């Protein structure tokens, strides 16, 4: 997905939101912080210039 977005415009800002299960799906668990770091690294590695991942510990990015 990151590569497809980069092909459109590498300057597009990408924000990966942390799903909050209180809205509807109480059975869905939040992703671990380490999973979010991995997502940030993968998307940033595609050449996108601004990637932010929301976590319970705060935001990751745009630079780690």
Describe the structure.
There is one protein chain. Strand 1 (13-16), helix 2 and strand 2 (50-55) form a beta-alpha-beta unit. Strands 1-2-3 form a three-stranded mixed beta sheet, covered by helices on one side. The chain is an alpha+beta fold and 64 residues long. The model has no long low-confidence stretch (mean pLDDT 88). Helices cover 30% and strands 20% of the residues. The chain has one domain (2-60).
Helical region count? Answer: 2
Structural class: alpha+beta
Q: Name the average pLDDT.
A: 88
**How much helix, percentage-wise, in residues?**
25-40%
Radius of gyration: 13 Å
Provide the succession of SSEs. HEHEE
**Biggest sheet architecture:** 3 strands, mixed
* Unreliable segments of 5+ consecutive residues: none
Broad shape: elongated
**Order of strands, widest sheet:** 1-2-3
**Extended strand count:** 3
